[in-house]
Amino acid sequence: MVTASASGRIAPRLRLGIVGGGQGAFIGAVHLTGARLDDRYELVAGALSSDPHKAKASAPAFRIPDERAYTSYAEMADKEAARPDGIEAVIVATPNHTHYAICKTFLEAGIDVICDKPMTTTLADALDLVRLVRRTGLVFCLTHEYTAFAMVRQAREMVRRGDLGAIRIIQIEYPQEWLTTKLEDTGFKQATWRTDPAKSGPAGALADIGTHGIHTARYITGLELAEVCADLTAFVPGRKLDDNAHVLLRYQGGARGMLWASQCAPGTENDLKVRIFGEKGSLTWRLRWPNELFFSPLDGPHQLLSRGRGEMLPLARHASHLPAGHPEGLHDAFAVLYRDAADAIIERRYGIPAPETSKTFPDVESGARMVGFIEACVASHKGGGTWVKTEFDV
Ligand SMILES: NC(=O)c1ccc[n+]([C@@H]2O[C@H](COP(=O)([O-])OP(=O)(O)OC[C@H]3O[C@@H](n4cnc5c(N)ncnc54)[C@H](O)[C@@H]3O)[C@@H](O)[C@H]2O)c1
């Protein structure tokens, strides 16, 4: 099967595998929907669950033939790497503590990786993946999908064009409500591993959703953090990891910011909001109204920019599937990341150049920055709320 690349040359559909995403899993199915939307991939193999029975039983629904439905990701990497028609890219949609070993195994087998966040549970592992990706030259896409909403990309272009002037203040909120009660005690598996330090890593809400907010602001502004001062709280009695995080942010170059990430804020559902204030104006993007961007130039009227209407800058046009007024959401954003990753993989494997507009997807260095952020926040909190530097060489 073939599909047209952005350059007009024809590249084959990429043969895709997935680790995780079997029966009862959450995000794997969203990845696969995203991968299908622009028709650059064909799912051919999977290690769909940590439970061997479920790994096999989940395969028919994905049209994965039994001989390519593996009960271990290591076996999948070995066998697929040995096949002439083996997978070219793999999705990693498993709990956090497994990402490092799974990514390393597939990278060492010469397979490009699309991994969910947070990339690893320690900075040492994250930096090891950075080195491995650099050494192999393979593509690594980290699915911080909020960077792929068209109006977030519009915001990035507006900041780069100078519409806000120098950035001074970055305010990030990512509240959710689903862990307001002790859901982990009810057998709800997404809650169980997320509140277990052995599986989630050293932080809870901070790592699970705080990194999405921090990364979205980083994508829009291009600014790197310099130091953080964190207050991490577990409000639900007996919970071992934070379900609420307040973090003060100092950016390189002098900008200041705040992050509030919470999973016990009733009424908020899933309400990421990023506000950027510069010398000449401000921008607000909110996941609740993802097709809009609020722009307030200091010397002019407030402007509600709507995806597809008026001036859409190149990255925003690239990230938009539908005309104005036809809402785009989470699946569309995943699709944009999958298209960007496909362009990079096709360039690497088939020599067909990727368009410039597809080159801003979050990569392995972004993943390491976010894991470094988590570790700095945990150290700050443990030290009683001291300022901890987040600058390190990647
Ligand atoms: N980008 C996003 O917006 C977003 C949203 C949700 C989750 N996530 C991330 O995605 C990952 C998965 O989260 P989820 O909510 O889908 O979890 P989940 O518990 O719903 O699903 C995890 C799946 O991985 C499987 N699995 C675990 N270990 C495995 C192994 N060794 N081999 C094969 N399969 C294995 C499980 O059996 C399950 O099918 C996490 O890292 C999470 O942080 C990202």
Number of helices: 12
Give helix and strand order, one letter per element, not per position. EEEHEHHEHEHEHEHHHEEEEEEEHHHE
Round the Cα radius of gyration to an integer and report it.
21 Å
Number of strands: 16
Mean pLDDT: 97
The main sheet comes to:
9 strands, mixed
Can you list the strand order of the major beta sheet?
15-14-13-12-8-11-10-9-16
By CATH, the topology of the largest domain is Dihydrodipicolinate Reductase, domain 2
The CATH architecture of the largest domain would be 2-Layer Sandwich
Determine the strand fraction and express it as a percent band: 15-25%
The CATH homologous superfamily of the largest domain is called: Dihydrodipicolinate Reductase, domain 2
What's the assembly state of these chains? single chain
Shape: globular
What is the CATH top level name of the largest domain?
Alpha Beta
Task: List all distinct small molecules, including ions and cofactors, that are bound in this structure.
Answer: nicotinamide-adenine-dinucleotide
> Number of domains in the coordinates?
2
Label the structural class: alpha/beta
- Model regions low in confidence, pLDDT < 50 over at least 5 residues: none
Fraction of residues in helix: 25-40%
Distance between the termini: 39 Å
Could you characterize what this model shows?
The chain is globular, with a radius of gyration of 21 Å. The chain is built from 12 helices and 16 strands. The longest helix has 21 residues, at 330-350. Helix content is 34%, strand content 23%. The protein has helices at residues 27-37, 52-57, 73-82, 99-108, 123-136, 150-161, 189-194, 197-200, 205-221, 314-318, 330-350, 364-382; strands at residues 2-4, 10-12, 14-20, 41-47, 89-93, 112-115, 140-142, 167-175, 225-233, 244-251, 256-262, 273-278, 281-286, 292-297, 303-306, 388-389. Helix 4 runs parallel beside helix 5, helix 6 crosses helix 9 and helix 9 (205-221) crosses helix 12 (364-382). It has 2 domains: 2-145, NAD(P)-binding Rossmann-like Domain (Rossmann fold, 3-Layer(aba) Sandwich); 150-322 and 367-389, Dihydrodipicolinate Reductase, domain 2. Helix 5 (123-136) links the parallel strand 6 and strand 7. The two termini are 39 Å apart. The chain is an alpha/beta fold. The strands form 3 sheets. A 9-stranded mixed sheet has the order 15-14-13-12-8-11-10-9-16. A 5-stranded parallel sheet has the order 4-3-5-6-7, sandwiched between helices. The protein has a two-stranded antiparallel sheet with strand order 1-2. Residues 19-22, 25-28, 47, 49-51, 73, 93-96, 98, 116-117, 143, 145, 189-190, 193, 208 line the site of nicotinamide-adenine-dinucleotide. Nicotinamide-adenine-dinucleotide is lined by residues 19-22, 25-28, 47, 49-51, 73, 93-96, 98, 116-117, 143, 145, 189-190, 193, 208.
